[in-house]
Amino acid sequence: MKISFIGAGSMAEAIIAGLIKQGICESKSITVTNKQDKNRLDRLKVRYGVSVNDNKEKAIKDADVIFLAMKPKDAKEGILSIAPFIKKDQLVVSVLAGISSTVIETLFQQELRIIRSMPNTSAAIGLSATAIAKGKYATNKDLHLVQALFTAIGLCTVVEEEQLHAVTGVSGSGPAYIYFIAEAMEKAALAQGLDIEVAKKLVSQTLIGAAHMLQETEKDAEVLRAEVTSPGGTTQRGISLLNDLKVTEAFESCIDGATKRSREMGEEIAEKLREKTSN
Fold first, then answer.
1. Is pLDDT of 279 > 80?
2. DSSP for 132-198?
3. For a Cys staple, 132 with which of 42, 117, 193, 263, CB 3.0–4.6 Å?
Protein backbone atom coordinates (compact mmCIF):
# COMPACT_ATOMS: atom_id res chain seq x y z
CA MET A 1 0.00 0.00 0.00
CA LYS A 2 1.33 3.41 -1.00
CA ILE A 3 0.47 6.45 1.11
CA SER A 4 0.95 10.15 0.34
CA PHE A 5 0.80 12.96 2.86
CA ILE A 6 -0.23 16.45 1.77
CA GLY A 7 1.27 18.47 4.58
CA ALA A 8 4.37 17.79 6.65
CA GLY A 9 3.56 19.24 10.06
CA SER A 10 3.59 17.65 13.50
CA MET A 11 0.46 15.55 12.93
CA ALA A 12 1.72 14.16 9.63
CA GLU A 13 5.05 13.33 11.23
CA ALA A 14 3.37 11.66 14.20
CA ILE A 15 1.31 9.39 11.92
CA ILE A 16 4.30 8.63 9.68
CA ALA A 17 6.47 7.78 12.69
CA GLY A 18 3.77 5.52 14.11
CA LEU A 19 3.08 3.67 10.86
CA ILE A 20 6.78 2.99 10.28
CA LYS A 21 7.54 2.08 13.90
CA GLN A 22 4.65 -0.40 14.03
CA GLY A 23 5.67 -1.94 10.70
CA ILE A 24 2.40 -1.05 8.97
CA CYS A 25 4.07 0.69 6.08
CA GLU A 26 7.61 0.74 4.73
CA SER A 27 9.36 4.09 4.51
CA LYS A 28 9.75 3.75 0.75
CA SER A 29 5.97 3.43 0.38
CA ILE A 30 5.34 6.85 1.94
CA THR A 31 5.59 10.11 0.02
CA VAL A 32 5.33 13.55 1.61
CA THR A 33 4.77 16.95 0.06
CA ASN A 34 3.95 20.36 1.51
CA LYS A 35 3.26 23.93 0.56
CA GLN A 36 6.78 25.31 0.34
CA ASP A 37 9.03 24.26 3.23
CA LYS A 38 11.66 22.15 1.48
CA ASN A 39 13.86 22.03 4.58
CA ARG A 40 11.02 20.37 6.49
CA LEU A 41 10.65 17.75 3.74
CA ASP A 42 14.39 17.08 3.77
CA ARG A 43 14.33 16.56 7.54
CA LEU A 44 11.51 14.01 7.24
CA LYS A 45 13.39 12.23 4.46
CA VAL A 46 16.53 11.93 6.58
CA ARG A 47 14.68 11.02 9.79
CA TYR A 48 12.27 8.41 8.41
CA GLY A 49 13.57 7.46 4.98
CA VAL A 50 10.35 8.53 3.26
CA SER A 51 10.17 9.91 -0.25
CA VAL A 52 9.55 13.62 -0.65
CA ASN A 53 8.38 15.53 -3.69
CA ASP A 54 7.39 19.17 -4.13
CA ASN A 55 5.62 18.26 -7.37
CA LYS A 56 2.04 17.63 -6.24
CA GLU A 57 1.07 15.54 -9.28
CA LYS A 58 4.01 13.19 -8.82
CA ALA A 59 3.53 13.10 -5.05
CA ILE A 60 0.03 11.58 -5.30
CA LYS A 61 0.20 9.82 -8.66
CA ASP A 62 0.57 6.23 -7.42
CA ALA A 63 -0.91 6.61 -3.94
CA ASP A 64 -3.61 4.26 -2.71
CA VAL A 65 -4.34 6.49 0.29
CA ILE A 66 -3.90 10.25 0.46
CA PHE A 67 -3.74 11.96 3.84
CA LEU A 68 -4.82 15.61 3.94
CA ALA A 69 -2.58 16.78 6.78
CA MET A 70 -2.00 20.45 6.10
CA LYS A 71 -3.01 23.18 8.56
CA PRO A 72 -6.76 23.91 8.37
CA LYS A 73 -6.06 27.48 7.24
CA ASP A 74 -4.15 26.07 4.26
CA ALA A 75 -6.76 23.40 3.45
CA LYS A 76 -8.42 25.18 0.55
CA GLU A 77 -5.17 26.01 -1.21
CA GLY A 78 -3.73 22.56 -0.48
CA ILE A 79 -6.76 20.66 -1.78
CA LEU A 80 -7.03 22.80 -4.91
CA SER A 81 -3.33 22.15 -5.61
CA ILE A 82 -3.93 18.40 -5.96
CA ALA A 83 -7.55 18.40 -7.20
CA PRO A 84 -6.65 18.16 -10.91
CA PHE A 85 -4.54 15.05 -10.31
CA ILE A 86 -6.60 12.96 -7.90
CA LYS A 87 -8.43 9.85 -9.13
CA LYS A 88 -11.66 8.30 -7.88
CA ASP A 89 -9.97 5.04 -6.97
CA GLN A 90 -7.82 6.83 -4.40
CA LEU A 91 -8.97 6.96 -0.79
CA VAL A 92 -8.73 10.35 0.92
CA VAL A 93 -8.17 10.50 4.67
CA SER A 94 -8.57 13.93 6.22
CA VAL A 95 -7.01 14.95 9.53
CA LEU A 96 -8.25 18.53 9.07
CA ALA A 97 -9.94 19.82 12.21
CA GLY A 98 -13.45 21.15 11.66
CA ILE A 99 -13.65 20.76 7.89
CA SER A 100 -16.52 18.52 6.78
CA SER A 101 -16.32 15.81 4.15
CA THR A 102 -18.93 17.74 2.15
CA VAL A 103 -16.69 20.80 1.98
CA ILE A 104 -13.73 18.62 1.00
CA GLU A 105 -15.78 16.97 -1.78
CA THR A 106 -16.85 20.39 -3.03
CA LEU A 107 -13.25 21.62 -3.16
CA PHE A 108 -12.17 18.54 -5.10
CA GLN A 109 -15.26 18.84 -7.34
CA GLN A 110 -15.52 15.06 -7.35
CA GLU A 111 -17.52 12.38 -5.59
CA LEU A 112 -14.51 11.03 -3.72
CA ARG A 113 -14.27 8.40 -1.01
CA ILE A 114 -13.38 10.39 2.09
CA ILE A 115 -12.76 9.29 5.66
CA ARG A 116 -12.41 12.06 8.21
CA SER A 117 -10.19 11.40 11.21
CA MET A 118 -9.11 13.12 14.38
CA PRO A 119 -5.96 11.53 15.80
CA ASN A 120 -3.54 13.17 18.20
CA THR A 121 0.23 13.53 18.24
CA SER A 122 0.68 10.50 20.53
CA ALA A 123 0.45 8.56 17.25
CA ALA A 124 4.23 9.01 17.10
CA ILE A 125 4.65 6.48 19.92
CA GLY A 126 1.73 4.23 19.00
CA LEU A 127 -0.64 5.70 21.59
CA SER A 128 -2.96 7.96 19.62
CA ALA A 129 -6.61 8.32 20.58
CA THR A 130 -8.30 8.56 17.17
CA ALA A 131 -11.89 8.85 16.01
CA ILE A 132 -12.91 8.39 12.36
CA ALA A 133 -16.09 9.03 10.39
CA LYS A 134 -17.20 7.99 6.93
CA GLY A 135 -17.99 10.49 4.20
CA LYS A 136 -20.93 10.13 1.81
CA TYR A 137 -19.13 8.07 -0.84
CA ALA A 138 -16.78 6.04 1.35
CA THR A 139 -17.52 2.37 1.87
CA ASN A 140 -17.43 0.18 4.96
CA LYS A 141 -14.31 -1.41 3.47
CA ASP A 142 -12.68 2.03 3.39
CA LEU A 143 -13.69 2.62 6.98
CA HIS A 144 -12.21 -0.70 8.10
CA LEU A 145 -8.95 -0.01 6.26
CA VAL A 146 -8.50 3.39 7.89
CA GLN A 147 -9.50 1.97 11.26
CA ALA A 148 -6.80 -0.68 10.87
CA LEU A 149 -4.21 1.99 10.06
CA PHE A 150 -5.05 4.08 13.12
CA THR A 151 -5.49 1.05 15.40
CA ALA A 152 -1.88 0.21 14.62
CA ILE A 153 -0.85 3.50 16.21
CA GLY A 154 -3.24 3.56 19.15
CA LEU A 155 -6.94 3.36 19.90
CA CYS A 156 -9.37 4.05 17.06
CA THR A 157 -13.12 4.38 17.32
CA VAL A 158 -15.84 5.11 14.75
CA VAL A 159 -18.22 8.05 15.33
CA GLU A 160 -20.74 10.08 13.37
CA GLU A 161 -19.09 12.93 11.50
CA GLU A 162 -20.80 15.66 13.54
CA GLN A 163 -19.26 14.18 16.69
CA LEU A 164 -15.74 14.86 15.40
CA HIS A 165 -15.99 18.45 16.67
CA ALA A 166 -16.29 17.16 20.23
CA VAL A 167 -13.54 14.59 19.59
CA THR A 168 -11.29 17.44 18.46
CA GLY A 169 -11.96 19.33 21.68
CA VAL A 170 -11.41 16.30 23.89
CA SER A 171 -8.71 14.03 22.46
CA GLY A 172 -7.44 15.90 19.41
CA SER A 173 -6.30 18.82 21.55
CA GLY A 174 -6.11 16.65 24.67
CA PRO A 175 -2.33 16.00 24.77
CA ALA A 176 -1.76 19.75 25.08
CA TYR A 177 -4.03 19.86 28.14
CA ILE A 178 -2.04 17.06 29.77
CA TYR A 179 1.26 18.77 28.96
CA PHE A 180 -0.20 21.94 30.48
CA ILE A 181 -0.95 20.01 33.67
CA ALA A 182 2.54 18.50 33.64
CA GLU A 183 4.09 21.96 33.26
CA ALA A 184 2.06 23.27 36.21
CA MET A 185 2.94 20.29 38.42
CA GLU A 186 6.64 20.58 37.56
CA LYS A 187 6.66 24.31 38.39
CA ALA A 188 4.88 23.59 41.66
CA ALA A 189 7.40 20.85 42.49
CA LEU A 190 10.30 23.24 41.85
CA ALA A 191 8.67 25.81 44.13
CA GLN A 192 8.64 23.15 46.86
CA GLY A 193 12.37 22.58 46.45
CA LEU A 194 12.54 19.50 44.24
CA ASP A 195 15.20 19.20 41.55
CA ILE A 196 13.90 19.65 37.99
CA GLU A 197 14.94 16.15 36.86
CA VAL A 198 13.33 14.57 39.90
CA ALA A 199 10.17 16.63 39.35
CA LYS A 200 9.92 15.61 35.68
CA LYS A 201 10.32 11.91 36.49
CA LEU A 202 7.80 11.98 39.31
CA VAL A 203 5.21 13.97 37.34
CA SER A 204 5.46 11.91 34.14
CA GLN A 205 5.31 8.60 36.00
CA THR A 206 2.35 9.81 38.04
CA LEU A 207 0.45 10.70 34.86
CA ILE A 208 1.38 7.37 33.24
CA GLY A 209 0.29 5.42 36.31
CA ALA A 210 -3.01 7.25 36.60
CA ALA A 211 -3.73 6.73 32.90
CA HIS A 212 -3.06 3.00 33.21
CA MET A 213 -5.36 2.80 36.24
CA LEU A 214 -8.14 4.38 34.18
CA GLN A 215 -7.58 1.88 31.37
CA GLU A 216 -6.96 -1.29 33.32
CA THR A 217 -9.59 -1.14 36.04
CA GLU A 218 -13.36 -1.03 35.71
CA LYS A 219 -13.56 1.92 38.08
CA ASP A 220 -14.32 5.34 36.62
CA ALA A 221 -12.31 8.48 37.30
CA GLU A 222 -14.57 9.69 40.10
CA VAL A 223 -14.19 6.45 42.06
CA LEU A 224 -10.42 6.30 41.57
CA ARG A 225 -10.09 9.92 42.67
CA ALA A 226 -12.16 9.25 45.79
CA GLU A 227 -10.02 6.24 46.68
CA VAL A 228 -6.91 8.41 46.80
CA THR A 229 -8.64 11.17 48.76
CA SER A 230 -8.65 10.35 52.47
CA PRO A 231 -10.84 12.67 54.58
CA GLY A 232 -8.73 15.39 56.17
CA GLY A 233 -5.58 14.24 54.38
CA THR A 234 -3.12 15.86 52.01
CA THR A 235 -4.99 14.92 48.83
CA GLN A 236 -8.24 16.24 50.28
CA ARG A 237 -6.55 19.59 50.90
CA GLY A 238 -5.26 19.72 47.34
CA ILE A 239 -8.60 18.71 45.78
CA SER A 240 -10.41 21.29 47.91
CA LEU A 241 -8.15 24.02 46.58
CA LEU A 242 -8.73 22.85 43.00
CA ASN A 243 -12.48 23.01 43.64
CA ASP A 244 -12.13 26.49 45.15
CA LEU A 245 -10.31 27.57 41.99
CA LYS A 246 -13.07 26.02 39.85
CA VAL A 247 -10.68 23.82 37.89
CA THR A 248 -13.50 21.49 36.77
CA GLU A 249 -15.38 24.45 35.30
CA ALA A 250 -12.16 25.63 33.64
CA PHE A 251 -11.71 22.29 31.89
CA GLU A 252 -15.33 22.24 30.79
CA SER A 253 -14.85 25.72 29.29
CA CYS A 254 -11.58 24.62 27.71
CA ILE A 255 -13.12 21.65 25.90
CA ASP A 256 -16.25 23.62 25.00
CA GLY A 257 -14.09 26.37 23.51
CA ALA A 258 -11.97 23.94 21.49
CA THR A 259 -15.11 22.17 20.22
CA LYS A 260 -16.68 25.47 19.17
CA ARG A 261 -13.46 26.51 17.45
CA SER A 262 -13.54 23.27 15.45
CA ARG A 263 -17.03 24.16 14.19
CA GLU A 264 -15.96 27.76 13.48
CA MET A 265 -12.99 26.67 11.36
CA GLY A 266 -15.23 24.44 9.28
CA GLU A 267 -17.75 27.22 8.84
CA GLU A 268 -15.01 29.69 7.84
CA ILE A 269 -13.75 27.37 5.10
CA ALA A 270 -17.31 26.70 3.91
CA GLU A 271 -18.04 30.45 3.83
CA LYS A 272 -14.91 31.17 1.79
CA LEU A 273 -15.97 28.45 -0.61
CA ARG A 274 -19.45 29.97 -0.96
CA GLU A 275 -17.89 33.39 -1.61
CA LYS A 276 -15.76 31.94 -4.40
CA THR A 277 -18.75 30.15 -5.94
CA SER A 278 -20.94 33.29 -5.88
CA ASN A 279 -18.19 35.29 -7.53
1. no
2. EEE-TT--HHHHHHHHHHHHTTEEEEE--GGGHHHHIIIIISHHHHHHHHHHHHHHHHHHTT--HHH
3. 117
